[in-house]
Every structure is written in C-alpha cells, then in structure tokens.
Amino acid sequence: MAQSAGRPAFPDGFTLHRFSILDSTNAEALRRLSAGTASPGDIFVADMQDAGRGRSGRTWNSPSGNLHCTAILRPHAGRPPAQLAFVAALGTLDALRDVAPSADFALKWPNDTLCSGRKVSGVLIEGSDTGYAVGIGINLVAAPPDEEVRFPAISLRDVGATVSPDEMTTALCIRLDRWHRVWGRDGFEPLRRAWLESAHRIGDTIAASTGKGTVEGRFVGLDPEGALIIDAEGGRSVVSAGDVFFPGDA
Ligand code: BTN
After folding, report:
1. Stretch 51-69: mean pLDDT
2. Residue 122 CA: which ligand 1 atom is closest?
3. C-alpha to C-alpha distance for 10 and 16, rounded to whole angstroms
C-alpha cells in the first residue's frame, strides 16, 4: 500500500465512484450490477442519499458529512455469502478504530458498530445473481435523535472525532480488503473469533426480535456459521436473523 504525507493511499483493487447525491448507493450498485456495468472492487460513495435504505425496510438518515457507500464484494467459492456480513462488520470496526483511536467501539450482532454503546454505523447487504452490494453507513457528523430510531445512535463528532468521508472511505476499503482476504484464505473461524473479541455485552442479557417473536436470555456467543446463541429460560436458542437489543443498557 502506498502512503503519502502520513495518510494511507486508496487501496489497489478498489475503484471509487463518487456522487453528490443518489437515491441510495445500494440501489445504484444493484442497477449497475444488473446492467453488467459494475464488478467486484467498485465502490459507490454519495455525499447525500434521498432514499437511503436501512435493514428491515427502514430508512437511513443520510445527511452530507456522513459516509454513505456501497462496495461490490464477491463471496469466495464455497463460503456462504451471508458471512460477508462479518467481513463488513469487522472491516467497519477496524476502520473506525484507525480513524478514531480514542473512541470506544464494539459490535452488535450481526454487523452494527456501536460507539459508547450507541449505534454509529450500519450495514445493509443486498445480493443479486451477479454480485453483492455491501452498503455501509457511518455517522461521522450527525446521528438521528432517539425518538426516530429503534436503537439509540451517535456520531463520531459527538465523541470529539473529526473524520472526513474521504478519510473514512480509504480506511474502510483497506480494512474490508484485509478481512475479505482472511475469510478467503482461512475461512470463517478467524472472523468469528475477532467478532466475539469486540462483541458488546457478551455474557449479559440480550433480546433478539425475530420474525417469530422475541427471544431473551444470556448472550453466549456465535455458532460456527455466525448465528447468535442465546441461553433462555426455556433452553438454548440459535438466531440467524433479527434485531438485537440489550435490556440492561436501557
Ligand atoms: C441498518 O439499518 O443498520 C443498515 C444501514 C445501511 C445504510 C447504508 S448507507 C449506504 C448504503 N446505501 C443505502 O441505501 N443503505 C446503505
């Protein structure tokens, strides 16, 4: 990796496409994938989005100054594409630690990053036959108020860190690339271990709301595929999709 004036250079293997405004960088990536005009390594960055998408059909606040980007990543042959969620989670976490080393970051399953216990970034992965659009939003300068979100949010500015979208994008691409290579070379286990080392409130009470209701119990860990293991009163539950909360944080 080249370096100039103390700043890491944009990594080889990524091609940056910048926009002042888009509906959604994920939507743009998927349009280009279906038109055959995007390929792995392309990354779409918009200064603002006017239809930013979050998980479970929610909207994602996308003001200028925050980072809104989507990278096209390919799953490695023989590895479940769902594990890209952990490449994205660990890439985002490490990139945040690079640009804001004094802040306190942790992971919330499966791929949110928390800062001081509040959500600072989210990931939305949308797939098509032709590739995967890994969308990442990071609150650099602004976070939505508590009454507008399911989980309280925060920005890097709120914790005294000044980070530009360009600086964040470069750090993110470097770290996504590293975790993507580890996954291809060594499989999922190193990602699972690294994720657990930075998990928010492991061992404490967790609640997961799934399509079938809410499971509450002790947060034990992740299974070999990355599903959440919760020891509840009625026995052990393994949750592979849902939103998680920490009743003890409230
Ligand atoms: C979540 O709900 O936590 C996921 C949020 C993902 C937001 C990012 S911003 C860039 C990309 N484009 C979108 O429309 N969504 C993702």
Report:
1. 97
2. 3
3. 9
Q: Which residue is it, tokens 């802040």?
A: 103
CA nearest ligand 1 atom 10, residue: 68
Give the C-alpha separation, 220 to 146, whole Å.
28
The alpha carbons of the chain give a radius of gyration, in whole angstroms, of 17
CA distances from 191 to 74, 110, 115, 133, 213 (A): 17, 12, 20, 20, 28
Q: Which residues line ligand 1 (CB under 6 A)?
A: 24-26, 49, 52-55, 58, 60, 68-70, 112, 122-124, 135-137
Give the ligand 1 atom nearest the CA of 56: 2
**What pLDDT was estimated at residue 2?**
44
Which pTM was predicted?
A: 0.95
- Ligand 1: residue whose CA is nearest its atom 11: 135
* Choice among 17-31, 59-73, 151-165, 235-249 with the minimum mean pLDDT: 235-249
Give SS3 for 148: helix
In tens, the pLDDT along 110-125 reads 999 999 999 999 999 9
